[in-house]
Structures are given as structure tokens and as C-alpha cells.
Amino acid sequence: MSRTRDQLGRPLVAVTGIGLVTPLGFGVADSWAGLLAGRSGISRITRFPTDHLRTTIAGQVVLPEEAGRQPFSSPERVERMAALAATEAVAGAGIGGDFPGPLFLGMPPVEVEWPQRLELARQTHGEQAGRYPAMVAAAAGRQDLFEMFLFGGIGERLADRFGTRGAPISLTTACATGASAIQLGVEAIQRGEAAAALCIGAEGSVAPEAMIRFSLLSALSTRNDEPQRASRPFEKTREGFVMSEGAAALVLESLEAAEARGATVLGLVLGCGEKADSFHRTRSNPNGGAIIGAMRAAIADAGLEPGQIDYVNAHGTGTPENDKMETLGMLAVFGDTPPPISSNKSMIGHTLSAAGAMEAVFSLLTIRDQMLPPTINHETPDPAVPLDVVPNVARPAKVSRVLSNSFGFGGQNVCLVLGAAP
């Protein structure tokens, strides 16, 4: 087997650039330092009024250019954070000029939001005032609204900005979105369709409508008086996830191409696994089949056995159901001696569409620094979670291979195996 090919003869996929925007800071260095320190990025929401909301806390990214103006819409926020993360990743990869491959952008679904709807409603009059037909008429000719809320528009503008090749791909697979974007980039390189790919996961949905929708699903923590203690994955008193936002970007290249141009290789994406169960619009099948299948598929795709995984970067949302299902998956895949598993969502919250990409970056940093990030707020262990969750304090460890789990609403599951640079 060639040192630049995997066990199936496919090009090995290297990561040569990474970028982050999280509630812990702008850039990889600040976010990773905060994570290893066990620092929480969760706070009271300041962006909009929270009167009458059941949940009033979130992981917020405060963009400097937002000061003194109305909050950005979710698509505007996604685009700005994606651009920041991608700029850091491309610069770190040492790529100048146009990017030599396609863009895969993982992002949330978009729709016209309440501020814009209310603005249109105020422009309507007569018997139809405030009704949708009149609002649609008021929106006629509003190119700004069309471009702001066009799902593919963000990817098009980012592709222009970074000079990527081919049609940019925008996708959304619920909480697995960021990992899906990476999977598409990996597969394009493995098929020989591209020598490089720019993969981004971005989320900007800390907004009233999204908060209310997740609250109606009883998915969010209501520990409003203690924001920094609210996200408690795998802990007995967990009650829901904490909404968050941010972006992560990875520059992927074939190992051969990266070495040919003298790039620094940060790590490898060794395997991808994807399974869906179509059980329910939000819930996973209680039998855990798709979660277990995605974990096993990623490990097999990497040409590994479960015992060769040193650490698992958990999906770890802190909802009672997710943590139970992930524990089931861990025991089914790894047996009685599972590797350590921890959840960075305990510190940065659930970044939804960005989570899978963020956690891939954190997995690479775990390998680089040989440090396991902690699961903070682990006060009362749950007897139903017999796992080493790296409670409260980061830990040095020998780590060569990491399994990164992303389990989405509706049973959309993607797992990645990250490995050390050769």
C-alpha cells in the first residue's frame, strides 16, 4: 500500500488548514485554550428581548460590526462567521490566490425572519393588512430580501470570495451538517474529482424564532439562573441542550498534493460513516441502529478495528435521550472497555449546523496536543452512563485516532475518524 493511499487504494485525505469562531473566541487558539481550561461560553441572551421565553441563555458570538445596530439576520451571521473561519483555515494552509478546489458549505435552512415579516406587514393596508398575500405583494422587487434569504446565496458569495472551483455545494443535514460537509469533501478527493476542498460548517440561529421552536420540542435547558452550568452532557441532572452558534472550516487536500507543495499536515480524515433511520422527524430510533451503524461504518471505512480508537469526541448534547442513545452506541461498538469520551458542547453549547465541523477541528487538536478536552458540569454521575467522560478537567493522553460523532434530528448521523499526520 502506498503511503499516500488508504487500504482501499483511495487517496489519503489530509487536513492542512483549520479555522474556528466559537462563543469562546475568534480563532483556533482562543477557542482551544478556552476548551482545555474548561471555560464555559454560555451566557444570558443579550441580542433580543427574552421576556416570556422559557430559555433565556445561549452561546453567543458577538460580532464587532454588529455593535450599535439591529442584530444581523441568521443568514448574514452565518456568512460572516463562515468567512472568518475560512479565512483562518486558508491562511493556515498557506494557499494564496484562488482556492484549488470546491466549496462544501454546511449551514442551517433559511427563511424570512420575524423582523423582515413585521417590516412587510407594516407596509400593508386595508382589509388585507398583515395577511400573507399583502405581505408577498409588499415584498415584490425586494432584491435585498431575495438575496439575503436565498439558501444557495451564501455559498455563491463565499465561493466568489475564496475563488473556489466549480459549483459551491450548500447542504443541511440537521445536527450532522458540519460533518456532512467534510464527508463530501473527503469523497470528492477520494474519487479523484478534486485535489483539495474547502469544507465549512456554520450556524447563526440564536434568534427568537429558532429558540421558541426548540423550546416547544422540550429540547432546551431552562437552567437560566446558571448559564455556565446549564450544559451538562452525560450528567444525571441534564435536561436539554443549550443553543449556540459559530463556524468551523477545514482545508482538505490529498496527502500527495499536500506533500508535493510542502504543506504542513495537521492530521488525516481516515474514515466517514453515514446512517439514517427515518424513524421520526426529531427523534432517533430507540434501538440505536443508525447511531451504531454510523460509528461502525466510519471505523470500518478507516480500515480500523474499534480497539484502535483512542478517544471519542461525543455528540453529547445533554438531552436525556441523546446521551442515553450515545451511551448505547458506545457500549455496542466498543464493548466493555470503551475509550474515553467527552463533549465540548458542555462548554460551547450545541452549534447545530456547525457542530460536526467544530468537533472535527477539536479532534485534530486533541491529537496534536495529546490532551483530552473535558466534559464540564459533571457533578452527579449517571449510573446509566458507565463511560469515562473526562469529567471537569482536561487530561493528557496518548491519542492517535479519534472518532467524532454527529447525530442529527430526524436520525441523520455522520461519524468521522481523524488520525495523526503520517
UniProtKB/TrEMBL annotation:
Q: Name one Pfam family in it.
A: Ketoacyl-synt_C
CDD domains, alphabetized: KAS_I_II
- What is the name of the protein in this document? Beta-ketoacyl-ACP synthase
Q: Which Gene3D superfamilies match?
A: 3.40.47.10
Record's keyword terms, sorted: Acyltransferase, Membrane, Transferase, Transmembrane, Transmembrane helix
| Functional pathway | Lipid metabolism; fatty acid biosynthesis
What is a GO molecular function of this protein?
Answer: 3-oxoacyl-[acyl-carrier-protein] synthase activity
UniProt KW Ligase keyword? no
Where the record annotates domain Ketosynthase family 3 (KS3), the positions are 10-420
Transmembrane portions of the chain: 12-35
SMART domains assigned to the protein according to its UniProt record, in alphabetical order:
PKS_KS
Checking PANTHER family in the record gives:
3-OXOACYL-[ACYL-CARRIER-PROTEIN] SYNTHASE, MITOCHONDRIAL, POLYKETIDE SYNTHASE-RELATED
Protein origin, superkingdom? Bacteria
